[in-house]
């Protein structure tokens, strides 16, 4: 019985790193809007390797002018 315990502990510790969670690694391109051919007014690009999409509504500008 002690042999089984001594053998199973290192075996368990050796297998434990193999059971870690798999991360779903996707590139930044997957966060961009899909390309369209029907004029859906979508735009996105990579800026310094990070996805960027404009924020706004109905094609209006995002400028805030304060006087």
Automatic annotation (TrEMBL):
<feature type="signal peptide">
    <location>
        <begin position="1"/>
        <end position="22"/>
    </location>
</feature>
<keyword id="KW-0732">Signal</keyword>
<protein>
    <submittedName>
        <fullName>Uncharacterized protein</fullName>
    </submittedName>
</protein>
């Amino acid at each position: 019985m002690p042999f089984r315990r001594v053998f199973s502990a290192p075996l368990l510790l050796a297998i434990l790193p193999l059971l870690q969670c798999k991360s779903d690694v996707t590139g930044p391109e997957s966060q961009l809007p899909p390309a369209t051919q029907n004029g859906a007014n979508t735009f996105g690009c990579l800026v310094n390797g990070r996805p960027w999409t404009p924020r706004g509504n109905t094609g209006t500008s995002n400028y805030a002018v304060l006087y």
